[in-house]
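Hello again,

I reread your note about wanting to compare the complex against the isolated chains. To keep things tidy I'm splitting this into two emails, and this first one only covers the full assembly. Below are the input lines as submitted, including protein chains and any nucleic acid or small-molecule components. They are followed by the predicted structure of everything together. The single-chain runs will come separately.
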Amino acid sequence: MKHLRAINKKARAIDEAVTQIEEVAAASGASADDLADDVVALQQQPRPHVPMGCTLSFSPGWEVDAGGGTAGLCQPVERDIYDCYVTCFWPVQVPDHVNYSPDWASNCATATKDWRNLDLVFP
Amino acid sequence: MTVMQAPSYRRAEYHGFDAGGSDFIYLVSAGAIFEIDEDVRAVLDRLDGQDLTHAALVRELVADGRDQAEAEGLVRELRAARLIHLGHGAPLAEMPQAPPADFPLQALVLNVTNQCNLACTYCYEFGADKIATPSGKPKYMTLDTAKASVDLLIKEAVGRKAVHITFFGGETLMNFKLLRDVVNYANEATAAAGKGITYSLTTNATLLTPDIVTFLSDNRIGVTVSMDGPPELQDKHRVYKNGKGSYAVIEPRLRTLIAHHKTRAITARVTLTEGVTDVVRIFRHLKEELGFHEVGFAPVTTGEERAYSLDANGMDSVLAQFNQLAEEWLEHALRGESHGFTNVSETISELISGVNKSHPCGAGMGLMGVSPSGDLSPCHRFTDADTHVMGHVSTGIDRGKQGDFLERGHVAAKYDCQSCWARPLCAGGCHHEAFVRYGDTGHANLHYCDWIRQWTDTCLRIYGVLSVKNPGFLERFAERKGLS
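Full-complex prediction:
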């Protein structure tokens, strides 16, 4: 390392690890630009940031927040399904209102009140 | 909906300090110490209170006059050393892993008796805050119990080359006959098992005789003397049951001990209480007038406020004097000499290794206490306490109770420690102190957090100065302590 001088045993262990990382990077020809965006696995610690309000759970119909509950969703669950249909690209989980079910939500003017009026759609 | 943001850098958790004209950081997630140059300083300053994307950080570094490759290299190095993190949200520092459940035993503290010929007013075993429940239990350990302890130690020290036995009390020398027999037995038993063994003992020194000193020296038994200083301080709390002070009795015995015990360092362990805070004077007396090799200090353990408790003013005065002795320790070290102030030596040892503790000490893990009855406890301070029996030498370690104790004591279970940079060394502090003060061994010792942080900072600065001006001393120190 050029800028850090290891002065205890633990720091020297880090120094060795960093040297190895640099050697591997040099051997594979990785450029510094690669540092700009990491690819991270969802189960990796520390966990990657997932904005509250969006979901990692692909259970059809209902979402949970990144913490596994519904309290942190950006809107009430009742409205969420409707909002996914209107404003958000969210494949599969709401009816295809462009091609097959244009009237799916026509009885639901205010989602938080009328969500029960959303039609059932059978493909 | 998901918003994609460019990930940005933020600083890892560290404690920065300067020493000997250089800048240093103590990296909390690892316990590592680095000397840093001005480029690192520039990056850390830029990330103070704000996050920057890779591009923005490099751009700023280039704007300062570094070339692109240099700036990229700097960022890459800091990132690889995990001094800066890329990502959103607060980085979760990885907690030290818990040791495996079958962590091999290394040391036993044998309470050879719970009886004492002194009646020190602040004693944690007999005083107002005692947790021991000795009623109806044996007062002296029998040879059978002691042998069973040795056998258990050998059996549980799987894979260890050497084990250690500490003799403790009560007053240890009130059962010297047993101690002698145990040493003979343990020497044979460990030799048969192909392991080494070392010994130490703690005593109030009142019962030392020339014969005992010879035995201790011949068997390389390290001796720690509990004492509080010159006569007027020693006799304040360290008294016989009739109130008579013990200094006059121990003084000639200490001189015999220090003159004739040649094989191990002789250390004094001082308990600081209200009115006994004259650290520098105590140190001078014990080190220079009596000739102890090492002198260590600790404030008395109390639950609620006692007449002898140290208050905040007392602690401030103690810390100021600790710093004075620490300064002397450094001056000695710069000359390549040993000073003898144990509180610095111990912390420096830990900084050399870069410890990152899951638990404050080895109690209940590599070390256990044995009461005169043979009950196992996390350490000698829990001896004879029904609340903390952790098995018996005849039946072995109670893994359930051990697991519960260690789970509570793990630093990750202590909420208050999570934002403290000193946790790799402290890990919440003494289990026994916590139990006496808060009724829970897993509680962080919040009453001395500031003290620990100041003290750790002082020792880091000493370490930093030595690493710049006399690194050879640190190497020799590590060798002598068996750390290298």
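For quick reference: Confidence is low (pLDDT under 50) at residues 57-62 of chain A.

B.
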